[in-house]
Design a protein that fits this description.
Helix content: 25-40%
CATH topology of the largest domain: glutathione-dependent formaldehyde- activating enzyme (gfa)
Bound molecules: zinc ion
Shape: globular
Number of domains: 2
Oligomer: single chain
Largest sheet: 7 strands, mixed
Length: 206
């Protein structure tokens, strides 16, 4: 009789332990599911903020950069960048300077905010050529990929060379520019407006 009581108590304890264990497993599974949902929603932006902090970018810069985030790299891969805040006024420029610096029919360029450019790696590998006073074309001094140009008259902006982007982008080119400077073998077969100078919208206040 006594031994039967002990057995019963033991089996009750066993049941209690089992239910505790299944509660613990349930809790861990829930934590795993909630954790992975949280990471998929917030993980990417948190990672990018942490990365820019690691690269000594001011926190306000990392946080106030808009919803677009594009990534790019030069041909040798040493320079890697992030572009935050979108790209404006993308055009195909057929001027002789863009032809020579890109080595082809035209360069595709667009405005980005200087504050929106994060150079993740290889900053020391960026050199520049000053084509006219205050206007610099920045490129990788190892592989010669054009990265962006800068103009002292609008220091808050840069003109990104779109060929270095690795991300798909939402924006699209709006025109062919400086078409009278194009190479004579360049037949401009795209269905975009053509201008002999800058696109007119560049001078419209936005
Ligand atoms: Zn390079
Ligand atoms: Zn040009």
């Amino acid at each position: 009789m006594k031994s039967l009581k002990i057995k019963k108590r033991n089996s009750n304890t066993l049941l209690l332990e089992r239910s505790k264990r299944s509660e613990l497993i349930g809790f861990l599974l829930n934590a795993l599911v909630i954790g992975s949902i949280f990471y998929s929603v917030f993980g990417q932006s948190a990672a990018s903020v942490l990365k820019s902090l690691r690269n000594s970018q001011p926190i306000h810069q990392a946080l106030a950069l808009g919803r677009h985030m594009y990534q790019g790299s030069c041909l040798c891969g040493a320079i890697t960048i992030e572009v935050h805040g979108g790209i404006d006024s993308i055009i195909h420029c057929h001027c002789s300077k863009c032809r020579k610096s890109s080595g082809t029919a035209y360069a595709t360029n667009g405005f980005i905010k200087k504050a929106g450019l994060i150079i993740k790696t290889g900053e020391e590998q960026i050199s520049f050529y000053e084509t006219s006073p205050g206007k610099k074309r920045h490129f990788c001094k190892v592989c010669a990929s054009p990265i962006f140009s800068s103009n002292e008259s609008s220091p808050e902006l840069l003109r990104l060379r779109l060929g270095i982007l690795d991300s798909c982008i939402e924006e699209r080119p709006i025109s062919h520019n400086f078409v009278s400077s194009r190479a004579n073998w360049d037949d401009l077969d795209a269905e975009l407006p053509r201008y002999d100078g800058h696109e007119p919208s560049r001078f419209v206040q936005k």
